[in-house]
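Example (one chain per record):
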Amino acid sequence: MIGANDSDDPLHLLMGQEVGAVSFVRDYVELHFDGPVLRALSDPSGVYGGREWHFPAPGSMDLMRRCIGETVDGFELDPDRILALDFGEHRFVVPLDSDTGGGPESAHVVGVAEDGRPSPLGGFRVW
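Predicted structure:
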């Protein structure tokens, strides 16, 4: 398991980043930061304000949108189980296991190029 203290992990580039947008793209969800993007290809779940949510259940999109403006202060990565971002008391979780994952790819992190725009040139990781 990898956590926020592991600076070699690509999720580390999300530490201290504020969620600028939550995008719903056909059959997946993206969290946009100031440059980097976390793409959840398997259905995410989480907790916001003590309320659990599971996408695409009713109300889940409203709770995910409340993450806009929240800052990543931790993460957890268990490559056989979950990728999770923490925002204080809130959490965004992407399942990575073969039973609940969306297929051969469950999540992507896209880094930023030198100009600050999302780009695989700035790093790209697939789980």
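Caption: Helices lie at 60-65.
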